[in-house]
Amino acid sequence: MIIRVRSPEGMHRVEVGLNDTLRILLEKLAPLMRAPTADAIVLTRDARGQEILAEFECSLVSLGLKHGDMVFANVAASARPSAEPNESNNTAVGTTQAPRESAMRVQQDAVDCELEHESGLIPRPRDTMCTHGARAMCEYCLPIEPYDAAYLEEHNIKHMSFQAYLRKVLSDHKIRGDISGAVPANFALPLEEPEYGVRPKCPGAHAPWPAGICSKCQPSAVTLQRQPFRMVDNVEFASRSVVDTLLEFWRVSRCQRFGLMYGRYEVSRDVPLGVKAVVEAVYEPSQGCEEDGVRVNVGPELDAEIARADAAAAACGMQLVGMVFTDLTPAAEPGKVLYRRHADSYFMTSLECRLAAYMQEQRPSACRWARAGRFGSKFVTCCVSGNADGGIDITAWQVSNSAQAMHRADLVVPSSVPSKMCVQEATATRYVPDVFYRYINEYKLSVTANAKPAFPIEYLLVTLTHGFPLEPHPAFRATEPFAVENRQHVHNVQTLGALKRHIVGALDSSERLALVLADFHLLVYMFGLDLLGAEEVAMIGRVVSEPMEAAQRAEELMAMSGWQTLVLMLREAADSELDPHGSVAAGSSAAGSSATSSSAPAAAVSGPWACRHCTFVNEGSATSCEMCALPQD
Hints:
Elements: E1 2-7, E2 10-15, H1 22-33, E3 41-44, E4 70-75, H2 87-91, H3 97-104, H4 110-116, H5 149-154, E5 160-161, H6 162-171, E6 222-224, E7 229-230, E8 234-237, H7 240-253, E9 258-268, E10 274-283, E11 288-289, E12 294-295, H8 300-315, E13 319-327, H9 350-362, E14 380-386, E15 392-399, H10 401-408, E16 412-414, E17 420-423, E18 435-440, E19 446-450, E20 454-456, E21 461-467, H11 496-503, H12 510-517, H13 520-528, H14 534-545, H15 550-558, H16 561-572, H17 575-578, H18 594-597, E22 609-610, E23 617-618
Parallel strand pairs: 1-4, 5-7, 6-18, 8-10, 8-21, 13-14
Antiparallel strand pairs: 1-2, 3-4, 9-10, 9-13, 11-12, 14-15, 15-21, 16-17, 17-20, 18-19, 22-23
């Protein structure tokens, strides 16, 4: 049979067999179109190029092509000969090989790879309108797509899952069901993050920004709207002790606390093709203690602390999944807290929104269907605050891809009003496009408003659900927890002496040692000492990640040379050498006068202590703070 092919070079008549595949057609067409290879040809059914033929190993008959049919062909821009390399060839939408090659090299999260193997179809039971047999289906009982608008509205799902959104986008390209296969050749990668900054290396004939600008590199106007999808659908805390450990600091000091959540991403069955972040532990970096907020220095020091915690989490098969902070104020009624975050005030302040955008931008989500190899972020933000009943509740959020893009382009800055985000003023080096947002006015009409000088941050937020498992099985299951890091403010310090008391006392039983090692704060401190090799670190990680074989892994650990060296060092060292802040001072001669010293104040025999009011570190003999003059207790 003969297939007619229309291309920029003219009309071609290609003779093929009835059983020939699409690849054979492309190989015969390549010399006629002067294409370097058959893979460089993009074949479509229509002239607009929307329905791409990419099933290369399928026969032409199975694709619905018959004698005399006409298709349309073009050569990919990256495969066309050019006298000079042009940047536009590398950014042509849907026709360049570079995005596809980079997409094939992207290492996605395991949960994304798992969900790509699923069809995502939602089964429906037999309806009263069905008139067919038990083995047939009709329009009333056929499975529906995971992005079906009626299903999402019926189940009160405000944001569809990212994988459902991806299926909706791919359905426009006739790709449905299992999408775990290779990305089709010359396929237009459909996902692209918004960019609100001036395009670098503009191909226009002008000086680079800020000396020059044109319509090609100038960003378009921004219209903010609710993001229809979310990268993570649910935040699940592995046990209540994860939150209680964080709240313990506030209960003792009445100061707020900030922490980094470590865990893993799993499939969530609560929404179609959903993803949930399972939080196993919270690491508390160095921070200032305030009753009305937290002070965290974002910079190299925080990055170094995150790197140490990341190493301990990676050994246990976990990763950084988000951040959490408290915003609690005691109410007049005992046992109650104030209800501060609600619809009439704010859910998340503009400063918190800016921090969330920064953290999400630092941890992008890999995606092989995105042109840049990344799309959005799975980093989540949780706030522990009061609810309408005066109790303590958790809210979970993410900021949208538009919020990340605005942060990247330095377009927004936090305002003094918590619920408003300010738009930056344009300068000689900062280009600020027009920013608009839409809202429903008092007449129930959709109105477009200028976002300058400030706009509500609700346009940048994506709400998540949260909860606890009915049958918790936490990975960190230690019954006697180790001291939490950076809590000198409440006289809770991590020392080698505490490490000795934890480990040496559990060496008589492998089961007990496995239980002691299942403590994230202990692992971060112990790995930070750099006394264990890579083999010992990996084995300790297996003790945590393999609870059914934890005792056996603990026995193997005790036989390793690096572990034996650590235990020997802890056993031989005296408590006074390992615990400089302990109750027993080095070189003390008061052993024989314990009866007389027992009546002395505790501060007289203790080491240096941190003031609970201003955090100044005082000498052990002082009973009041040298900085603020307030008493120790």
